Amino acid sequence: MILKNNRGTRSRFQLKLGVPTRLYLVLVLFMMGCVGIPENVKPVDHFQLEKYLGKWYEIARLDHSFERGLIRVTAEYSLREDGGVKVLNRGYSSKEGSWKEIEGKGYFVRGPDEGYLKVSFFGPFYGSYIIFELDHDNYQYSLVSGPTKSYLWILSRQPKITEHLKQTLIAKASAAGFDTSQWIFVDHE
After folding, report:
1. What are the phi and psi torsion angles at 100 (to 5°)?
2. In CATH, what number is assigned to the domain containing residue 44?
3. Closest by CA position to 57, among listed 187, 157, 167, 181
4. Is residue 27 part of a domain?
5. How do beta strands 85-93 and 125-134 pair?
6. 5 within a domain of the structure (yes/no)
7. How many domains does one find in the chain?
8. Strand partners, 120
9. pLDDT by residue (tens digit) across 95-141?
10. Which residues pair with 89 in a beta bridge?
11. Residue 1 half-sphere exposure toward CB, CA atoms < 13 A
């Protein structure tokens, strides 16, 4: 929008906001972006939470500080009293010689029959949890994305998967635009 100022010249309209208002707007925009879906990623349909609950082994992941150096990583999902999903992530730090775990909570974004949840481990801050590939028959493996293509996991009910399944999931993730060359395959020995 262009307005004339008091000197008679044209200038662009500038909305003046105080620091708290600007910080709030940045936070809102950031949080909205954290529950988005990356391009070329579509959450699975006909999702059944009761089949997804239980323990999953992390087979592969993209590197992030919150999991760096961890082996034997698992995620366990159970129902919360409020209808949400309790998330318990656990991994062993061989460097520190101890187990690390964090508990979070998840809620469906658009409905319980779609593999699209928002998950929080830190207060009001949520991130996307998008199941975009799933063994619909037996719920034995899943391919999960976060809000951007920097977050990607292969999860399995067993600590190891076949080479054929591994290559199939790599191909599906690559086709969706993920850089699978950066995957870290998790040691469960």
Report:
1. -120, 135
2. 2.40.128.20
3. 157
4. no
5. unpaired
6. no
7. 1
8. 105
9. 999 999 999 999 999 999 999 999 999 888 999 999 999 999 999 99
10. 75, 102
11. 5
